[in-house]
Design goal:
By secondary structure, the protein is mainly beta. It has one domain (5-375): Maltoporin, Chain A (Beta Barrel). It is built from three helices and 18 strands. It has helices spanning 5-20, 25-33, 90-95; strands at 44-54, 57-70, 74-87, 99-114, 117-128, 131-144, 149-162, 172-186, 191-204, 212-215, 218-221, 227-242, 245-256, 261-273, 277-288, 314-330, 334-354, 359-375. The chain has a 16-stranded antiparallel beta barrel with strand order 1-2-3-4-5-6-7-8-9-12-13-14-15-16-17-18. A hairpin with a 4-residue loop joins strand 13 and strand 14. It is globular and about 65 Å long. The termini are far apart. Mean pLDDT is 89; it is low at 1-36.
Length: 376
């Protein structure tokens, strides 16, 4: 049985990002327009089941989150997340055998508020049969100019352990450093805009012990550089259109020292239907240029060589929607909402060939989330 830790990581990031791409924008804009001193996050509990299916990969499982405040200045949170993965992706079926495995993640967080500042500390730990990951993060948010501007700084330090099924002698590590800077500005009572920058440095085993590259049609072990640094800039605008309608637009540019350059553009719309229903919809487009050492079928043996399709030239188009229903509310006590979201993503690869057919590879992916959230 073979496993690919990078594929699992991509699935996890994709599942988590689905919720971020489907926000309840209208409520956020209205809340921002009346900004004041920083408040603690609401006490809440959430339970979710998720499903990702596409490209031969199926990932599903539950997720739980509980957050509770203490003494009006501190909020504590805990989370639990499971991915049960069945993998028969093109990498697996062309060079190895399909596999099944499970990943579990635990997270702890603490928020401290003092006047117009908020400090957030987070710890996460995850484990799967051939991969372990631990991370610690610190974020500081400061409101200035009477709450019209919010400045945020963040740092994450992570350390991963990489193993390989069937080879007890293989063991390696990866270190990650991430730095974040963001500014959010209220432009008018109806519009706000944010700008965020991110710097990431990685050091260690940055490939997969299972993936193979091709040189003159023959499969050889993948060889990636052991260091990588990347940058990203993101601009986002959110507006209240009136009559309980809102929209958001964003653009993100990414580049790294592997010569990858990527663009992401997204446009979304939100609308309340009565007092109980909130609907969101969005469209997102992503395009990427391949890494310097990527080759579908290399004609020269080089120090670094990869056929990882995530390092190739490709684009994807995502269409998604979310529906929220206010199930029950008791003012001043609690509120319960039922939520469902769905996203369809079309992947089209330009220079990665499906060797079974000889044509450029493509596939569609489906992401489904169903969850209940309660504030109290």
């Amino acid at each position: 049985m073979a496993a690919t830790s990078l594929r699992l990581a991509r699935v996890r990031r994709f599942l988590r990002s689905a919720a971020a791409h489907l926000p309840g924008l209208l409520g956020g804009v209205l809340a921002a327009s009346g900004a004041r001193a920083v408040d603690l996050p609401e006490d809440r509990a959430e339970g979710m089941v998720h499903l990702y299916k596409g490209g031969g990969v199926t990932a599903s499982g539950p997720a739980l989150l509980v957050r509770k405040s203490l003494a009006d200045r501190v909020s504590l949170s805990g989370s639990y997340y499971i991915d049960a993965v069945s993998n028969a992706s093109i990498d697996v079926v062309t060079t190895a055998s399909p596999f099944r495995e499970r990943r579990t993640e635990f997270g702890l967080g603490a928020d401290y508020v003092y006047r117009d500042s908020q400090i957030t500390l987070g710890l996460t730990s995850s484990k799967e049969p051939d991969y372990t990951a631990r991370a610690a993060s610190l974020d500081v948010t400061q409101e200035v100019f009477g709450g019209m501007t919010t400045v945020s700084l963040g740092f994450t330090r992570a350390s991963d352990g990489v193993g390989k099924h069937g080879d007890p002698n293989f063991a390696d590590t990866v270190k990650h450093w991430q730095y974040r800077l963001g500014v959010t500005q209220i432009l008018t009572p109806r519009w706000l805009m944010s700008a965020n920058a991110e710097i990431v440095s990685d050091d260690g085993f940055l490939g997969s012990p299972y993936r193979a590259a091709r040189v003159f049609g023959a499969f050889v072990p993948e060889r990636n550089p052991r260091t990588r640094s990347s940058r990203a800039l993101k601009l986002r605008a959110i507006g209240d259109l009136g009559s309980r309608n809102a929209m958001h637009a964003e653009y993100r540019y990414f580049w790294d020292n592997w010569a990858i350059k990527a663009h992401t553009a997204e446009l979304g719309y939100s609308r309340y239907f009565g007092d109980l229903w909130l609907a969101d919809a969005f469209v997102r487009f992503y395009s990427q240029k391949h890494a310097l050492f990527y080759s579908d079928n290399a004609t020269t043996e080089t120090a670094y060589i990869s056929r990882n399709r995530q390092l190739s030239t490709f684009n994807n188009l995502g269409l998604g929607a979310k529906l929220s229903y206010l199930w029950k509310r008791v003012p001043g006590q609690y509120e319960i909402k039922a939520n469902g979201s769905y996203e369809l993503v079309q992947f089209r690869f330009k220079d990665f060939t499906d060797i079974r057919t000889g044509s450029p590879y493509s596939f569609n992916a489906n992401v489904l989330q169903l969850y209940v959230s309660a504030t109290f």
